[in-house]
């Protein structure tokens, strides 16, 4: 296995629509899944899409740890285990949208407020080629939408309604720390 290099905003692989995967079980796809998982664990992110590691294929993976689910969606929110999703499709369930702070491994050091649908259903294949279908709400829905956007050449700043919310993460932390010192 290997830690893969992350493509950054501006790289052509992040600007194009990714190709469908015709056979999940071929060694190259199984190796890609393992390498992406190792990369995601190493980086400590919530999700990763194949185009982010310079591979223009329709494959994403994500997870929502219990602590993150509780922080984002409130106490008792369910964790989501590591999930591999191949050739995903998203169906929006309801009109409700919510803005939330997003960051991205391909847009390092920045974060901004992005409106996303709060309730979706997604389907595709798992890492063994078995069908997977789930409903997602809250942060789980946000992560899936964010990662699947990568498969269509979309980065989160392209979804932002107000670019004035785009900030360096380091500056956001300083502001929060300064506000905490005042209280």
Automatic annotation (TrEMBL):
- List UniProt keywords, sorted A-Z: Hydrolase, Iron, Metal-binding, Protein biosynthesis
Q: Which residues form the active site?
A: 147
Q: How is the cofactor bound?
A: Binds 1 Fe(2+) ion.
What Pfam families does the entry give?
Pep_deformylase
Q: Where does Fe cation bind?
A: 104, 146, 150
Report the top EC class in one word. Answer: hydrolase
InterPro entries in the record, alphabetically? Peptide_deformylase, Peptide_deformylase_sf
- What are the names of the required cofactors? Fe(2+)
The Enzyme Commission number assigned here is 3.5.1.88
Presence of the UniProt keyword Protein biosynthesis in the record: yes
**Superkingdom of origin:** Bacteria
The role this protein plays is: Removes the formyl group from the N-terminal Met of newly synthesized proteins. Requires at least a dipeptide for an efficient rate of reaction. N-terminal L-methionine is a prerequisite for activity but the enzyme has broad specificity at other positions.
Q: Which HAMAP family match?
A: Pep_deformylase
The UniProt family comment states: Belongs to the polypeptide deformylase family.
The name this protein carries in UniProt is Peptide deformylase
- Annotated source species: Dongia soli
Name the gene. def
């Amino acid at each position: 296995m290997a830690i893969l290099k992350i493509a950054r905003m501006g790289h052509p692989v992040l600007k194009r629509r990714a190709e469908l995967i015709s056979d999940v079980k071929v060694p190259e796809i199984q190796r890609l899944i393992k390498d992406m998982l190792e990369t995601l664990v190493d980086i400590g992110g919530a999700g990763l899409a194949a185009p982010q590691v310079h591979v223009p294929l329709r494959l994403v993976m994500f997870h929502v740890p219990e602590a993150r689910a509780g922080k984002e969606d409130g106490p008792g929110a369910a964790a989501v285990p590591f999930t591999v999703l191949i050739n995903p499709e998203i169906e929006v369930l309801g009109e409700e949208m919510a803005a939330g702070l997003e960051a991205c491994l391909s847009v390092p050091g920045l974060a901004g407020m992005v409106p996303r649908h709060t309730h979706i259903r997604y389907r595709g294949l798992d890492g063994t080629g078995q069908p997977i279908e789930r409903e997602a709400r809250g942060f789980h829905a946000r992560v899936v939408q964010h990662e699947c956007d990568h498969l269509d050449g979309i980065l989160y700043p392209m979804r932002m309604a107000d670019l004035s919310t785009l900030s360096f993460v380091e500056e956001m932390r300083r502001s929060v720390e300064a506000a905490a010192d005042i209280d």
